[in-house]
Give the backbone structure.
Amino acid sequence: MAAAREPEEIYEETRKEGRRRLSRPVVELAATALVGGFDVAFGVAAYALAASAVGGSRGRLAGAIAFGIGFVFIVVGKSELFTENFLIPIAGLNRRDRGSWFKLGELWAVALVLNIVGGLLIVVVMTSHGVLRHGSAQPLLELADHVTDYSTLAAFLSALIAGALMTLMTWFVEGAATSLGVRIIMAWIVGSIIVLGGFNHAIVSTIELLYGMRLGSAVSYGSLFTNLGLSVAGNLAGGLLLVTFVRAVQATGGTRG
């Protein structure tokens, strides 16, 4: 069995990947982000199919496990989510170079928008008459209703947890895990936890709301964009403050136990 990597080694691998991501042309970034939206939308559809097939309280668990497939698609297929880009590009950022900061802003903006666009395209196809099996709509409506039931504070705090979970996943997937199998397991676990817990993930929750809107849920555009703003803010806070900062200190300035 291979020895676990030290935090310094993990952070250095993360830094290399961050520099690569920040140096990509916009076309490559747009393509990976668009496909990332596809993957999440497929995962939400898998949730609905599994939840409706099993039914009852166990249906949510089956659906959450099925949803994890979407995150596996992202890791294995090298697509990209907005929420994967907290730890990695920050590690690779040249803080003295304005161009590097511009590339970070470009990365966040393009990934967020194209994730949602990609998800919307799949949602439109999936919710067209006769595509999903009968009974699959109810779990999707329940997901959308859960998001719309958040209070402002709960939406932000839930997003804080989702951002921390996603950034912790990237710490393991990009640096700590030495085998594809471990990366797949980590992605599957985190994806399943986010949906099982109903945590407010900017891309997952937005796609859930889009499914709900297409299927007749009383989700307004105001609710959609309000939650998107809260989820983005919370994801950033959770990913940057709870994981990125702490892991950077651990790897570069902290003391090892």
The domain at 7-252 is CATH 1.20.1080.10 (Glycerol uptake facilitator protein). The mean pLDDT is 91.
